[in-house]
Amino acid sequence: MMAAVAAAEDVVKASSFGFDSVDSTDALQKALDSGAKKIVIDAQSSPWITRPLFVRSNCEIVFERGAEVVAKKGEFLGKNDSLFTLKCCENVKISGYGAVLRMRRADYAAAPYVKAEWRMSLNLLSCRNVTIEGLALVESGGDGVYLGVARENGPCRDIVLRDIVCDRHYRQGISVISARNLLIERCTLRGTAGTAPAAGIDFEPNRPGEELSDIVMRDCIVTSNHGAGIQFYLGQLNASSKPVSVKILNCISTGNSRGFWLGNGREHAFVRGSVTCENSFFATKNAPATYIPPTSGDSVAVSFKNCRLVDFQALHSLLEKAPARREFNPAAAHPFDARPGELVRLSPFRFRNGVTYRFYMTAPGEAKFSGRFTKVGKPDFKAEPVVFKDAEGKTCATASINGTDETPFSFKAEKAGFYTMTAKAGSHAFGLSAASVPIAVVPSGPVRSIYATTGTLFFRAAEDTPFVIAVSGDNAKERVRAKAADPSGNMVWEADQIFDWTAYSSGKRPAAGLWQVTFAHPTGHAFEDFSILLQGAVPEFFLTPEKCW
Q1: Which residues, other chains included, contact 61 with Cβ-Cβ below 8 Å and sequence gap of 6+?
Q2: Which residues of 194-226 are buried (b: 16+ CB within 10 A; e: fewer)?
Q3: DSSP symbol at 197
Q4: Which of 87, 178, 200, 335 could form a disulfide with 549 if both were Cys (CB 3.0 to 4.6 A apart)?
């Protein structure tokens, strides 16, 4: 009997402590304080209405799909009242794919509320080893996520924010005040408005002893914020502060007042370090895409590598209306191989900056490929080995490519399953021309840049799941022609001379199956670099319908 009780306490449902459609604060807080290893906030017929809640260390919190937690109307009168606060917490995982945490931003702007900008959805103070995934955070009176300091307890450390949507917050989608070893991955930050800075994400320490170190932001979309998309204000740091170390990888920042903004706020004693932006897209409509003040050589170094910086765009309006991004789920993939073991010609698309492919082995054995690098422009070129990784992300083999020559190569798998193959190309390009196994291109971010290739890409749409496919040329001189066809081969969209983002939206009930997008030379313009974005369907592209899933 005692063992059964102990086992039951390992997992508790919030509803086991009660549910009140008017105010469930007591039940929710009892669940959080129960000592259970796993707390499930189960979906109810109406939202969980609550006052401020507090999370303890050493637990997992799971919000069921469809669960909604809503700030109680007339509460949260304190300037710092947040929906969930984690103060000096350790070893916490919070997940909520398909769940919503909602506050009442409009209410907090009027009496009886005192004007404030610190009513957060998730307020993390000096936390360590915390992962938050899948939640939609909506309309807080401050930030969607705040990463700060509890007095002298140091920065937030070892934090992962993944697949979070921060929508229509009062001050910021995310504020990073002090953090070490932070990963922000596949998040969407949009619609911030209310009080300055009103950024998608703001990196802004408050004191010289705070830090921004070992931070990576990747595969994120930052759009339609009243302030900058990605902002740094480093004026409270100085030469004695720990050097800044931040990487922005494979991100889109568009439809904001600036795509990227950095300010120091000082004339001397700058903090040192680096902010590196790679393979990202920054665009605004009525202002330069980026702002970086002139400073001395001793200040933070900002670099843009393989980025597009443009001052015109239509992409943000597409992203506002587009369905949520879907991710690859191996359990839902059903590999198809019309010619098992045969080396089949692929659409020979060449991808700038390198590319990752996902392929499937039906059994242990050998997979055959053929591909080559393409030198683009004047930069030095060196062919790096192709790297193979297993489903756990562990490197299991490499293969050499003979410069820019078409090179056959192979891979021997020890077991069945999905693997990835990555070719790094710098500012140059790489493409496969043949494969003997089911294979797809895996975008390194929301946008996939293609170099001077005509042909057809295929992607799978799920039944009754809307999607948006968008295409862009590189500039007004380099354009592209594109057309899309449904699984029956009926052409549903065609556009020529594309240079700004142009899109096809499937509507609410697209046909399930393999759709295709075909690219060709534009009429009357140069043809070189162009990009593609897929939202709603899983963003991976097959190079032949004979080997896919």
Answers
A1: 32, 38, 39, 41, 55, 92, 93, 94, 95
A2: bbebbbbbbbbbeeebbbbbebebbbbbbbbbb
A3: T
A4: 335
Tokens describing residue 280: 């990202």
pLDDT tens digits, residue range 379-422?
788 888 999 999 999 999 999 998 899 999 999 999 999 999 99
One-letter amino acid for residue 370 of the chain? S
If one counts every other C-beta atom within 10 angstroms of the C-beta of residue 30, the result is 14
Q: What share of the chain is helix, strand, coil (3-state, %, to 5)?
A: 5, 45, 50
φ, ψ at 62 (rounded to 5°): -120, 120
Q: Which residues share a beta bridge with 291?
A: 261
The list of the chain residues with pLDDT below 70 reads 1-8, 265-269, 285-287, 294-297, 311-322, 325, 444-447, 475
Q: How far is C-alpha 366 from the chain's CA centre?
A: 34
What is the Cα–Cα distance from 96 to 451, expressed in whole angstroms?
Answer: 38
Q: Strand, helix or coil at 101?
A: strand
Length of the chain: 549
Place of tokens 């393989």: 306
* Residues ≥6 apart with Cβ < 8 Å to 41: 14, 28, 31, 48, 61, 62, 63, 64, 67, 69, 96, 99
The DSSP line for 291-320 is: E-----TTS-EEEEES-EEES--SHHHHHH
Angle at 129 between CA 126 and CA 133, to 5 degrees: 105
Segment (H or E) for 9:
helix 2-10
pLDDT, one tens digit per residue, over 282-300 is 887 666 778 887 654 578 9
Q: Which residue has the tokens 């963003």?
A: 539
Neighbour-count burial of 98, counting CB atoms closer than 10 A to its CB (0-12 exposed, 13-18 middle, 19+ buried)? middle
Compute the mean pLDDT over every residue in the chain, rounded to the nearest whole number.
91
Backbone torsions φ then ψ of 529, nearest 5 degrees:
-90, 140
> Helix or strand or coil: residue 176?
strand
The CA distance from 496 to 481, in Å, is 4
CA atoms of 209 and 205, how far apart (whole Å): 9
